Amino acid sequence: MMKGAPELRELHIVPGNLRTAILEQLSYESLGDRRHLMVIVMARYATEEHMAAVVGRVRAAGGDAFVARGRGRTIIRLIGEVDQFESLHLQNLEGVANVVRVSTPYKLVSREYYPDRSVIMVGEVPIGPGTMTVIGGPCAVESAEQTLAAAITAKSAGASLLRGGVFKPRASPYAFQGLGEVGLKILADVRAETGLNVVTEVTTPEDVDLVASYADMLQIGARNMHNFALLQAVGASGRPVLLKRGMCATIEEWLMAAEYIAQRGNLNIVLCERGIRTFEPETRNTLDISAIPVAHRLSHLPVIVDPSHSAGRRDLVVPLTRAAIAAGADGIIVDIHPDPKHAMCDGDHALSVADTREFACVATHLAPFAGRTLTPAPGAGGERPRYT
Ligand code: PEP
Ligand code: MN
Q: What residues line ligand 1, using a CB cutoff of 6 Å?
């Protein structure tokens, strides 16, 4: 046995699922301890000298290292400042097969740092545990009449917040791009008329101040989840942020994007699962239902679901809403249009007035079974000042 090493423990590593096996092995550790854990997986051919070199380098950097020999493999657990270990380039040492960071690379948004679930307030509307908050409205603001009609329908369907895009990140440069500031003014008027606070997308860092001067919550769309300058800009704005998951992003990448916002001092972040790209062509995206409990487990931030963009199909909006509520979502963001057939954007999945009855029924009656109450819409407001 190596000098200075603790009593060795048997480690059974499941082939192909090394990370899970390591986590299982370490599951007795408290969350606090795990924050400081990194694991080195040694190659099968690794010798005592190879292991001693790893342990020596870690101890020289002020950390500690413990060797655990498995049936096929040996792992070395490092304890100390994981960020510092990253700079030791241990993967380059002879006999090292893999370096696994057990601690999460994100901090501020992790449950390890904030164990309780957060409630994010958008004006007086809460999003978080205990409530089911519905955000409804058109995919794109097209006119004052269309936006008001959609908002009134959304409110009667249980929405307490209004959505509507004025900067539309479209796949085609020839498609309707949104009304820009004209659309922001429409949203502000409809807010005054209905009392519904406004959630709208911002697509470039340069527009953050403008959009934040009208909107109550800034949406980062799926296509912009990796736009780090934009994430930093909405972080600096301090305004609540709705962060959609990128269509090809892992949950960890999504939480790292949230960390960019949090790192600028803004922890008012709501995560939104909106479907990921898979091989399945029947739906536009595949709603990753498991992302809800997984993100809740890893992060204290609320998680809502977009059943509209997930499947891109009107007939699936209500079934996916049911699934999302049952899986523990903190809210739903849904596209509603007074005349979906003539919508300038995403008419295929927008709910019409008639469709919203069943949606409202699900939001109202299923939420209590999931331990939540539907967030009521605030009373109609009258003229409200622009944000400055
Ligand atoms: C939207 O909500 O209007 C939108 C464009 O969604 P996503 O970014 O998820 O595609
Ligand atoms: Mn859309």
A: 139, 165, 201, 221-223, 244, 274, 306, 309
- Residues whose CB falls within 8 Å of the CB of residue 370, separated by 6 or more in sequence, listed in order: 132, 325, 326, 328
Residue 41 CA to ligand 1 centre (angstroms): 41
Which tens digit of pLDDT belongs to each residue from 336-369?
A: 999 999 999 999 999 999 999 999 999 999 999 9
pLDDT per position as a tens digit, 204-235: 999 999 999 999 999 999 999 999 999 999 99
Residues 6+ apart with CB under 8 A from 327: 289, 290, 292, 293
Residues 6+ apart with CB under 8 A from 349: 284, 308, 309, 311, 312, 313, 314, 316, 317, 335
Q: Which amino acid is at 326?
A: A
- Percent helix, strand, coil in the chain (nearest 5)? 35, 20, 45
Closest ligand 1 atom to Cα of 140: 3
Quick check: 157 pLDDT over 70? yes
Atom of ligand 1 nearest to the CA of 346: 3
Which residue has its alpha carbon closest to ligand 1 atom 4?
221
Rounded Cα gap, residues 109 and 323, in angstroms: 25
Q: Residue 304 corresponds to which tokens in the numbers above?
A: 């809502």
Q: What are phi and psi of 236, to 5 degrees?
A: -70, -25
CA of 221 to the centre of ligand 1 (A): 5
Q: Which residue reads 């962060």 in tokens?
A: 243
Q: Are 329 and 268 in contact (CB under 8 A)?
A: no
Q: Which ligand 1 atom is at minimum distance from the Cα of 221? A: 8
